[in-house]
Amino acid sequence: MASDATRLDVQTNDGVTVARFIDNRILDEAVIQVVGDQMYRLVDDHGLKKIVLDFQSVEHLSSAALGKLINMKKKVDASGGQLSMCNLRPDLLKIFKVTKLTKVFDIHKNVEKALKAF
Question: Which of 39, 50, 80, 88 could form a disulfide with 93 if both were Cys (CB 3.0 to 4.6 A apart)?
Fold first, then answer.
């Protein structure tokens, strides 16, 4: 069952948490729900304030997944934290540009640049 699977590879270095998406397609409703829940727990259960979401393996995202990302941003902002993203493929970055989400999210080329922004 999808809810039993870990959808994020989470590592923390020097107070910054990097959460790498494991799935290359975040399209299925059940997967999106699990990914959202696991992202939210980083803030709600673990109290993390500095988070980088790494999209290196992600090829496709649904609009519902974008909604989860927006909610994650709101949750991090409400906790007084910072959220960055990195490694978005050109086609995903285009979606963020078209939807004006590049104005909402702090997007970096790679993990190293995202970590330096904190």
Answer: 88
Q: Give the DSSP H/E element, type plus range, for residue 26.
A: strand 25-26
Strand partners, 83: 51
pLDDT band at 4 (very low <50, low <70, confident <90, very high): low
Q: What share of the chain is helix, strand, coil (3-state, %, to 5)?
A: 45, 25, 30
Could you give the CA distance from residue 33 to residue 2 in angstroms, rounded to a whole number? Answer: 9
> Considering the entire predicted model, what is its pTM?
0.94
State the Cα–Cα distance between residues 13 and 61, nearest whole angstrom.
Answer: 27
Per the listing, tokens 């399209």 go with 27
* Structure tokens, 39: 């992202």
- Digit-coded pLDDT (tens) for 81-98: 999 999 999 999 999 999
